[in-house]
Amino acid sequence: MVKALPKKGGAGRKPLSRSLRMYQRIAVAFVIGTFVLLVVVLYLSVSRATIHVVPNAKLVSTTTAINVVPNPTLTGEMTGVVVEQTFTQAKSFSLPSDGGTPLPAKATGLVTLINKTSAPQTLVGTTRLLGNDPGATLFRIDNYTTVPANGQIDVTVHADQPGLAGDIGPAQFTIPGLPASQQTEIYAVSVDSMTGGVAYVHQLSEQDLNDAVNSLTDEMVTGAKTTLAAGVDRTVFPGEAYNIEVLDKKSDTQPGTETGSFNVSLSVKIAAVYYSDELVRQAATADLTKHLPSGYVMSSVNTDGLKVTVDSADAKKNTASLEVYLDGVASIGATSDVFAKERFVGRSASEVMTLLSASEGVKSSSVTFTPFWLKRVPTLKDHINVDIDSPLP
Fold first, then answer.
1. Model pTM?
2. Gap between the Cα atoms of 173 and 115, Å rounded
């Protein structure tokens, strides 16, 4: 009897039990789940959105009150020096020739009287000076003067007769009233031309008078600075501001009068306040920053435009009230509610830019994603970066 051979390949291979098949499925699911989790973790770790913002520049300004006192104890107080003095000055002003009516006038100018003798020479007002050229115009000195021995002195002269003949260039003059023997040793010379042989007459206006007063006041303040600062340690108090009070002003010509020139005299009380410009700048900058709109930061401070005015001053008490103007440029900052990251989560680039365009503090914006194929802002707020440029001028 022949025995049947076993089927090829069937020896030693048993079907998997049900429990083993279950473990196999679990293992496969675990591997797949691990892979998916790894992909998710990788996505979350590398996905980022950068929002780039160009802000609008916003001009901000403040006026800060600062008190100069001998012993500062409160905020807004500092030490300084207050000096006060009254000045008086007169000056002649000429109206412009354009549009004026020309009228003959007496030319005037400056000459140097020279005395080569060993004795002083007195000359009365109206002393004649005559040029050496034939037909030369006669001039007269304006005021009584004494020419020192072996010396010289400058005096103002005017032509004896009105007209253009008095508008002459530099010249040498003899003094006809002196003995002939002295005329070569006592004489006059002019370096500059005589002018004013023709006056152009206008009707003096209130504006002409006010402009003259302002011009003379500025000139007086400029001239008074050295006098007022005497005795002040400018290394300690380099800053300065002035309070100007016109006590009296007079004009020899009233508005509405036809004239080519007029004289103005002023009496001005000038109070000078000297202070630490660094402390003033710091106080004004702090005040400017304090009053910024909510969510804004300072971009730049215009310290060159800082202006200090004197509101009041008392030299006897060494006190003064100052007003300090300062401006600068501010821009919207990263802490503004406009850039709250929860506003952007899950939004597309166009949605983010539309949202930002509604803010007056934002000039323009753009959004970039990492990796580049992302279409929406990540859900994790710490994966959102807001990059703000400095504002354009």
1. 0.66
2. 13
